Amino acid sequence: MATKNARSGRTGYRCTECGRTVTKWIGQCPDCGQWGTFEESSLRPATSSGSTGGSPTTPARPIAEVDLDTARVVPTGIGELDRVLGGGIVPGAVVLLAGEPGVGKSTLLLETAHRWAAGGAGGRSLYVTGEESAGQVRLRAERTDSLHPELYLGAESELPAVVEQVEQLRPGLLIVDSVQTVQAGDTEGTPGGVTQVRAVTSALVTLAKERGLPVLLVGHVTKEGAVAGPRALEHLVDVVLQFEGDRHSTLRMLRGVKNRFGPADEVGCFEQEDDGIAEVPDPSGLFVNDRQSRVPGTAVTVVVEGKRPLLAEVQALVSPTQMNMPRRAVSGLDSARVSMMLAVLDKRGNIRTGDHDVYAATVGGVRVTEPAVDLPTALAVASAKLDVPLRPGTVAVGEVGLAGEIRRVNAVGRRLAEAARLGFEHALVPPDSGPAPEGIRVTEVAELRSALRALRDG
Q1: How far apart are the first and last CA of the chain?
Q2: Using CA atoms, how far apart are residues 21 and 40, in angstroms rounded to an integer?
Q3: Residue 363 buriedness (CB in 10 A; 0-12 / 13-18 / 19+)
C-alpha cells in the first residue's frame, strides 16, 4: 500500500539532511546515518525515462568555443577575501558565509558591498537584511565608514520582494543576511526550517545563474560549528566559507571549506577593530611573542594554512602536583596529540610528567592541529620541565612518531623561507627535508632524543 501511495504522488517521508525518500518512517537514514531526520512530505511520481523532455535552454557546442569571460573572477577589493575565493568572485557564483553569532559576518560583508560599489568593477551592490532593521545597518555602515551612493540597502524577509529589488536595481552584487530569515511564500514551513532554507537557496541559485549575478549568503551555524540547515545546502552553493574567531580575541580567520572555482584550503586573516574588520596580510607577528626574551616552555614553529605559512608559538607549563590525577589543559592544540607527546617524552626522552600538571597552549588564539606541531610541542614541554629555554631565533618543525622518530612534513622549504624572512636563524627539521633557504641554518634531527640533546646543548 505504501508503494502504491508513493507512485500515485501521495505522502511519504524525506530525510531533511540528504534528501533520501522512503515510503514509511524509519529512525535512521541509511544514506547519511542521521537519526530522527525523516519528515512527512509529498512524493512526486518519477518521470519515466522514455518520456519526452523539454528543449535545451542552451545548445551544446565545442568546449573550446565556450566564452571564458563569464567565468573570470572579479576582485571584491578585500585582498584576504579574494585570497580565499581564489582571486575574486565569479559572476553567477553563490557564496555561503557561515559563522557563529557576533564573529563579524555582517560587518565583513557590509565592507565587501562598500568596496564593490566604490571600486566600480561590478557596479552597484545590494545588501538585503532580514535580521536587522535598515537603521541598524545604517549605523554600522557609519561606524565602519561604509557609506556609498551605489550601495543600496533593503530590509526584506520575503523572497519575492528580494527578487523584485534585484529586478528594479540591477545590482552587480547581491548580499542576503541571512538565508535563514528569508521566506518563500509558495513553500510550506517556517522561516529557517529545512524546507524553507532549501527553497530559498535554490531560488537564489537560479537567479544568480540566469543573470550572472554573484550572490553572497550569510548562514547560521549549529552548536557543533557546522553550517545550519540541510546537508544539501552546502551542495547547492558554489563556495562555502567559514568565519571563525574567539570572543576574547580580535583575530578572525576566514577558511575555505568548498570552492568550485579555486583552492578549498586557503585561509584569510582579519582583525576585529572598533571601526570594523581590518585585513591582516602578514599575521605571523600576531602569533609570536618577543623573541629576545629567553623563557623556558616556549617553542616557535611554522604551520601551513592552505598555501600560506604562518609562524606560531607553542607554550607549555609543567608544575608539580599533589593530586592523584595530574591536570592536563590544552588550548589551541589537539589534546589527543599533546597527550601522545607526553607519553613519547616519558618513554623515549626520559622526561617524566606523570606527577606534574601540564598546560599547553598557542599564542594569539590561533588553532593548530597539523602533525608538524608535534616537535615544537614536545620541545616546549621538555623546556618547561627542565627549566631550560630554547636558543633565541630557533624554529622547530616535524611530526613525532610513537617510536620517537621525527618524520618529514610537507612544504618544509616554504616554512623555513617564512622563518628566515622574519629573522629566525636556526631550525630543527626532520631528515631529508631538502635544501635550506638562504639566511637560516638547519639541524636535522632523526629522533626525539637528538632534538632534546640540541635543547640541552643550547
Answers
A1: 80
A2: 10
A3: middle
